[in-house]
Amino acid sequence: MGPTPIANHHTEERWVAMLGTHLRRQASTWLHVPIPTQLRYVLLLRVWLWCNDKGHDAPMGSVCT
């Protein structure tokens, strides 16, 4: 008899199922947050990324200064 593989496909399926459950739980927790709050965070993140991308070339008086 040869050595048994450490992770067979059953173990892998179990991990995938556990991860899927965890992600669904995270998603449902996140979805309890009101939509405007989510949008606000997304917009802030986009502005921040855009400003970082522009560097110091942002015009005076813009959101990035």
UniProtKB/TrEMBL annotation:
<protein>
    <submittedName>
        <fullName>Uncharacterized protein</fullName>
    </submittedName>
</protein>
